[in-house]
Give the backbone structure.
Amino acid sequence: MLWDRIARRAFGLGGGGDTMNIETVGRQEAPVGRARLGLALGGGAARGWAHIGVLKTLAKAGIKPDVIAGTSIGSLVGGVFAAGRLQDLEDWARSLTKRRMVGLMDFHIGGSGLISGERLKRLLGTELMNIKIEELPVNYAAIATELGTGHEIWLTHGLLVDAMRASYALPGVFDPVKLGGRWLMDGAMVNPIPVSAARALGADVVICVNLNGDAGGRGTIIQSHRADRDDTSMTPELDVRPSATWLSSISGAAQRVRSLVGRAQDDNPAPGLVGVMIDAFNITQDRISRSRLAGDPPDAMISPRLGKIGLFDFHRAAEIIEQGELAAERAIDDITAAIAACPVLR
């Protein structure tokens, strides 16, 4: 498979590429006689493989996007799709195992994150290194967050690989990325499902893919809870480990950070540092998503049933992609109705 060959070559290649400008992109010429369709692809780490199934199902139904705005894993899958490499990405994703995932993680000590991200950058860059966003056949934006200011940054010009890498730079896990003089990190901090960006880029009808819509129970208010320190009779044991079982094959320097993921000792009931950090990030992302979708709702929403998929379960691509396909099939009627109801004002 092509992405297998890329993976084998990636570790011997250097990075590189020009720094992209951070600008807004002009609206491309509108299709004649139909509404412009936009996709807002949300963040969700491994759950993002569902975007592959969604895009495949929409294509089979003849639904073609004119605009793609993606956050985090959504920017990656959306960018690969726009570059015409979706099948290669799917083949590679389906081939992933726990051990292969560990091989992609270049752990380091002393950086801004646990993982530098250079191996993954080289993997993507082998095929996409010279592709620029402005050369894509659709209007595309990768959403990132500026470190320090909290500005929402839309990456709409320059090298596609660099834009995707900045958009998925999960704080504390991946090092932030410096582009155009700004340090950037995961766009889910400010816009987890970028409906607003898709509209601003010219979409008349926006379909969003919410990877966390199946996480029931989040945000419930517990109005009366005991403050007894040792009372566990009313509350289940907290476990926010991000599918840490796949870390069993880590060796070398990575072993020194293994205890950060999950519990350091069996007799210590507290969750690990990374587990707490990622769960806090997910809670924040969920709350921001609800608020932004309420203020700027999509015309149709696709919500794959991914509640049982861990954020680091990249090796479960087959079932995640299938859930994306099923969710898109359920939403086809709503999508076609929304497109048909949209007046073409040009």
About this structure: The CA atoms of residues 21 and 180 lie 5 Å apart. Residues 317-341 form the longest helix (25 residues). Strands lie at 37-41, 67-71, 139-146, 152-155, 177-179, 182-186, 205-209, 300-302. The first strand starts at residue 37 and ends at 41.
